[in-house]
Design goal:
about 50% helix; 8 strands; alpha/beta
Length: about 260
């Protein structure tokens, strides 16, 4: 039986960003090791999360569940939690369209929409019922995570993530494209001299496998609003060409080669 004086938070899943968020939570943090990678095990252990084995056990023991997972599986994860009978507060903190956030919220008893932005500090934006938003924000009081309430209901936090993610990551794609063109004609140094820095390309390579589906979410958001969707679709295609470098460092020459040489 749960101790009602202690908030237990379940974390799905302790990826690189999820582990940082979970480590800032006040109170006990649970996670489910079934089916997870060795790297995930190491992150969870280093952060001091308690392994309860399965998602069903996590749901049964948690007051709040934080979902920070790849965008493509966000609805499947929420469906598994709902199917396990979770009646606590679900925090949908994935890089998904506002429409998908609304669908997920509709499948659960209580839900707060969240988005993680780590440009300057680690910001967790929250929207939805203001009392529930305040409950989630309280988990991070005094921590390195800045929990920031937004006006608006479910979908507002996700919209912010789509807006920021598109601006930020499409910018990286444009830099990579610029250097690929410049390298083809031997004018990379001149491009750098005009203030176009190449550092972001190398940093993006290992993360591109996560960025590609996020760009598809941005494109879907644009389509739903009647905005041009070609720019984020193009960024998704570019990032997909770096799939082989998932979580592995790569030199800029290899990354630019991968953009130019596709079967």
């Amino acid at each position: 039986m749960k101790n009602q004086d202690v908030t237990r938070s379940g974390l799905l899943f302790p990826g690189e960003m999820g582990a940082l968020i979970g480590a800032a939570v006040q109170g006990e943090v649970l996670w489910a090791s079934a089916g997870r990678t060795e790297a995930t095990h190491r992150r969870a252990q280093a952060a001091g999360f308690r392994d309860v084995g399965s998602v069903a056990e996590l749901v049964a023991a948690s007051d709040i569940v934080l979902s920070i997972c790849p965008p493509a599986i966000a609805e499947d994860v929420a469906g598994e939690v709902a199917g396990a009978g979770f009646d606590g507060l679900y925090v949908e903190a994935n890089a998904i369209t506002p429409a998908r956030a609304e669908r997920i919220a509709g499948s659960l008893h209580r839900c707060v929409d969240g988005s993680v932005i780590a440009r300057s500090g680690l910001n967790l934006y929250l929207s939805g019922d203001q009392a529930e938003v305040a409950q989630v924000a309280a988990l991070f009081r005094g921590s390195e995570v800045n929990a920031i309430p937004l006006q608006g209901g479910i979908g507002a936090a996700s919209a912010l993530k789509m807006a920021f993610g598109g601006w930020n990551k499409i910018g990286v794609a444009l830099v990579a494209q610029a250097y690929a063109i410049a390298r083809a004609y031997g004018v990379e140094d001149a491009l750098a001299g005009e203030g176009v820095e190449s550092d972001r390309i190398v940093h993006a390579g290992p993360k591109a496998w996560r960025w590609a589906p996020e760009m598809e979410e941005v494109a879907d958001t644009c389509a739903g609003l009647g905005l041009p969707e070609g720019i984020p679709r193009g960024a998704a295609e570019l990032f997909n060409r770096w799939q082989a470098h998932r979580d592995r460092p790569a030199e800029i020459e290899q990354l630019l080669d991968d953009l130019a040489h596709q079967d």
